[in-house]
Write a structure and sequence with these properties.
A hairpin with a 2-residue loop joins β8 and β9. The strands form 5 sheets. This protein has a 5-stranded antiparallel β-sheet, with no helix packed on it. The chain is α+β, with helices and mostly antiparallel strands and 384 residues long. It is rod-shaped, with a radius of gyration of 40 Å. The N and C termini lie far apart (128 Å). The longest helix is centred in the C-terminal third of the chain and has 33 residues. The chain contains 8 helices and 16 strands.
């Protein structure tokens, strides 16, 4: 180790992270010239949940240098000379105010030298981090990529504080929970890329239906406090109580009322014309027309009327959906992330047609049966 020009002996800050994400900084020194061993009092790092080395920081003026050869822990070697000597295993800070430090690695030694920042850069982040996450941070991007300032230096704050560089690994149309303007990052990679000790984010844990019941206790053991629980059924129930869902249910109700009115109208028409129609069919029967033909004519007359009405109604519904583009919103908050499907849907259309056919066919059968019974007792010139 060596101090800066005329400065005091340097010190070294070693930052570690526990399994629950908490960080602790341990200070070594003063560090003397030559090769020496410096003890660290490390607590709350059990073997089953070991701590993770985060960074080194040399405390001293410009030109202060410290060389690291080996780092041991309670269970043995934590960082071997080979790792210290591999320059790809170490990096400086990637935040905008990073820099002001020189890192040299080779021959089993990591050398950290404080540089000579000028002006406001004297407050630059001089920490040297373990390169245990990809930089730039890979993300999945939905939506347009905002322009960077400066150009080419695209950055995001994945944990709400530090802005780190990122690269788009994959593009998507939408992302769950956020829509068509969001990014998806790996939480571990984001935490290891960020240099802030604190976070300004709220976490959500998404569980499948077969998640273990003890997951809440496990989250609490990891240091998280469960503030709210929400299931897909809860969300669906909330949406079902809102205006658009009520409007859709009202449309179904009005359709059923219309269908009931159509069946009632058929009964009224059949009642009004039952006697003259029965007289006509009875006359045909008296002239030798078989009863089967008379029966078929009675059913066909009303059946053709009902069938034509159902087909005309379906055609009108399809044309209306094609012509009229405005529709009732699906969500009250104006959510339109996914494109809404326009036009008549085949399945609802077929279901509506099937219900209409069943109801009106039943009404037709009842009305025609009443007329056929009248034909059986009707004779030309009066009743039998």
């Amino acid at each position: 180790a060596g101090p800066g020009a005329g400065g005091p002996l340097p010190r070294l800050d070693v930052t570690i992270a526990r399994a629950n994400g908490e960080t602790q900084t341990l200070r070594l020194g003063p560090i003397r010239a030559g090769s020496h061993t410096y003890p660290i009092e490390l607590t709350n790092c059990p073997a089953e949940r070991p701590c993770r080395l985060v960074s080194f920081l040399v405390l001293g003026g410009a030109g202060t240098a410290v060389s690291l050869h080996r780092l041991d822990g309670p269970a043995g070697v934590v960082v071997t000379p080979d790792v210290f000597g591999d320059v790809s295993r170490w990096r400086g800070a990637v935040v905008p105010d990073g820099g002001g430090v020189e890192v040299e690695a080779g021959h089993g030694v990591l050398s950290i030298v404080n540089g000579f920042p000028a002006g406001e850069q004297r407050r630059a982040d001089r920490r040297v981090f373990v390169a245990d996450a990809a930089v730039p941070l890979p993300v999945i991007r939905a939506g347009k990529v905002p322009s960077a300032d400066p150009i080419g230096d695209n950055r995001i704050a994945p944990l709400g504080i530090d802005e780190v560089p990122y690269r788009i690994a994959l593009k998507a149309d939408v992302l769950p929970g956020f829509g068509n303007d969001a990014m998806l990052v790996d939480l571990t990679a984001a935490a290891r890329t960020s240099t802030a000790a604190n976070e300004a984010v709220s976490y959500e844990v998404w569980l499948t239906a077969d998640a273990p019941a003890a997951i809440t206790e496990r989250l609490a053991d990891a240091g998280l406090t469960v503030l709210n629980r929400r299931t897909a059924a809860d969300v669906a129930d909330r949406y079902a109580r809102q205006g658009p869902a009520a409007a859709l249910r009202y449309l179904v109700f009005t359709a059923l009322v219309g269908l009931a009115l159509a069946a009632g109208s058929l009964f009224v028409v059949a009642a009004v014309e039952r006697r003259p129609r029965a007289a006509e069919l009875a006359a045909l029967r008296a002239q030798g027309v078989p009863h089967r033909v008379v029966r078929l004519a009675g059913y066909a007359s009303y059946g053709a009327l009902v069938g034509g009405a159902v087909l005309a109604g379906l055609l009108a519904a399809v044309l209306a959906r094609l012509i009229v583009s405005a529709a009732s919103p699906i969500f009250t908050d104006g959510w339109e992330v996914l494109p809404l499907r326009t036009g008549a849907e085949p399945v609802p259309l077929l279901v509506a047609a099937a219900v209409a056919v069943v109801v009106l066919a039943g009404a037709t059968a009842v009305a025609t049966a009443q007329m056929i019974r009248t034909v059986r007792v009707w004779q030309p010139g009066g009743r039998s």
